[in-house]
Specification:
inorganic pyrophosphatase (n-terminal core); 6-stranded parallel sheet; 6-stranded mixed sheet; Diaminopimelate Epimerase, Chain A, domain 1; alpha/beta
């Protein structure tokens, strides 16, 4: 199973570029990893990936344990035309007490249990046989002498060697299945009656003359080492499995279903065995409740975050192998020691660049382009106060690899991200939105990079209303910072109840929706800490 590498929800350029670059590095070191995105990509990130000809990472909805992760009984099913005996052996082999019956397209047509088999042996019709010739041959380990019927459907008639001369007392017809020893006259009568099938017991010899008559009359003959009594008992189990089915529509689970939902289903229905199907409703096997706690958790590496609220759904059910980040410590915990690398730099990609250097792995041009773009994005072209010498040094060396002018490319990239013309208010809020928990309060901070605040200001009431809606769902603070890298500051819009909190957080004498706060450009260093401090005091 590949290890999944991903950044935070509502991913920014650093989050996406970091997971792609780290996956490349890990794979170059012999590991098996794949990059994933857990949110929709913004315009800037799409521009970067297209510029360096890198495909977008596949979307990852969650890392919750699903039925396909459980160690279930794969291929535990029988065809509806298989014998009852084969179904019994299959259940024994898989150590299960019930098994799905499927048609030739693997679609479930029934469900057979050990109880059904036992009930059939005790209460079922002892004389009627409806099955294939192959089923009978296999179950009796018989030798084929003549063959004229593929399907055997009729009543069973037994004549053993101790029987008296019964040919005058027995009326045989074309649908009969005769079990007999070396009884010439009985065999002759049966062949003349054109019975469906003759089964010779205890390897009885049949005259060649009778074989030729059987060929003329199209009578099928097989021979078994078993006694008549043994054949009579075993041949009943050659009947089709579907013939004793009592459950046409068993409760099934999809391989894509969540494990916790299956647990609720099992607790409610109290069955032991459940057929598993895929989206095409093809049977895959059986899951047992007594073994359903044997599963494989997904292995993940987190980049650019270390917080449950910012990570993928179901992260608590996965195995976190490693975290690489440049933010404050969050609340993600692990049961075993992991590699955790957190540095006070402006960008996660700066850390990943250092890892390439430390591992002495050459950085290809397209990966260098991603790392450089992430650094430019997170440091706002080195104007953010979170920028460090490590970021600048890494950016310069990466620019040399791809022979690109940082400022020229940086302005082009940031311009691609600044347009909000095609984005709804909701999309703008969630373009780069991160949530935090402070005590029992929720804190949501969105940062939008644009040089066109006037378009937002003309419709500012809609932004406030949307933030108030968010606050009604999760009480606390929801705020948008609209950052203008040329003016070197950010405009602020906040939910109504957060007015005093924002004013106190930034030591403002007054505050109003859309107010410009000079020098505030870094969410990590300038936006999050003061708001969090005020909330912790409440």
């Amino acid at each position: 199973m590949n290890t999944l590498i991903f950044g935070h929800r509502n991913p920014d350029t650093d989050s996406i570029c970091s997971c792609i670059a780290l996956s490349y590095l890990k794979n170059a070191l012999g590991e098996k990893t794949v990059p994933r995105a857990i949110g929709h990509l913004n315009n800037e990130t799409k521009f970067v990936l297209k510029y360096f000809n890198i495909p977008e990472p596949q979307y990852l909805n969650d890392v919750k344990i699903r039925i396909r992760d459980i160690h279930y009984r794969k291929k535990a099913y029988v065809n509806e035309n298989d014998s009852i005996y084969n179904a019994y052996l299959t259940m024994q082999n898989f150590e299960i007490t019930a098994i799905p019956i499927v048609n030739n397209n693997r679609k479930i047509t029934g469900f057979l249990s050990m109880k059904d088999v036992a009930r059939f042996l005790i209460e079922g019709n002892k004389d009627s046989i409806h099955t294939s010739l192959n089923n009978i041959i296999n179950i009796l380990n018989a030798e084929l002498l003549t063959k004229y019927n593929d399907i055997i459907d009729g009543r069973m008639v037994i004549i053993n060697n101790q029987s008296s001369n019964l040919q005058d007392e027995i009326l045989l017809d074309y649908s009969d299945i005769l079990i007999v020893g070396n009884r010439y006259k009985i065999l002759e009568q049966a062949i003349n009656s054109k019975v469906k099938l003759i089964i010779l017991a205890i390897n009885s010899v049949i005259d060649e003359e009778l074989i030729e008559k059987a060929k003329v009359n199209s009578v099928t003959i097989i021979r078994s080492k078993m006694t008549s009594y043994e054949i009579a008992n075993m041949i009943r189990l050659s009947n089709y499995t579907i013939s004793i089915n009592t459950c046409d529509n068993p409760i099934t689970v999809y391989d894509d279903d969540y494990y916790d939902e299956f647990q609720l289903l099992a607790k409610k229905t109290k069955h032991t065995n459940y057929p598993i199907v895929n989206k095409k409703k093809e049977c895959l096997g059986v899951i047992q409740t007594n073994l359903s706690n044997e599963f494989e958790r997904k292995k993940v590496i987190l980049v650019d975050h270390n917080n449950y609220e910012q990570s993928v759904e179901g992260i608590e059910e996965a195995i976190v192998m490693e975290i690489i980040d440049h933010h404050n410590l969050g609340m993600i915990g692990t049961k075993t020691p992991i590699n955790f690398r957190c540095m006070t730099v402006g960008c996660t990609s700066t850390i990943i660049y250092k890892m390439f250097v430390e591992k002495n792995i050459e950085i290809p041009q397209n990966i260098a382009g991603l790392l450089l773009s992430a650094i430019i994005s997170d440091t706002l072209l080195f104007t953010s106060p979170s920028t460090t010498d490590d970021d600048i040094d890494a950016a310069n060396k990466l620019a040399n690899i791809i022979n690109i002018d940082i400022n020229e490319y940086g302005y082009k990239m940031l311009k691609a991200s600044s347009s909000i013309d095609k984005l709804t208010v909701n999309e703008q809020i969630y373009e780069d939105y991160k949530s935090y928990t402070v005590g029992k309060l929720h804190l949501g901070i969105s940062q939008l990079i644009t040089m066109d605040f006037e378009k937002i200001n003309n419709n500012i009431d809609e932004y406030v209303n949307k933030l108030d809606e968010l606050n009604s769902v999760t009480p606390g603070v929801n705020v948008i910072f609209i950052t203008d890298i040329f003016k070197k500051g950010s405009y602020v819009i906040y939910n109504t109840r957060a007015k005093e909190i924002i004013m106190n957080a930034f030591n403002l004498k007054e505050i109003y929706e859309g107010m410009f706060i000079p020098s505030i450009m870094s969410r990590k260093k300038q936006m999050l800490p003061p708001i969090m401090e005020i909330l912790e005091m409440q």
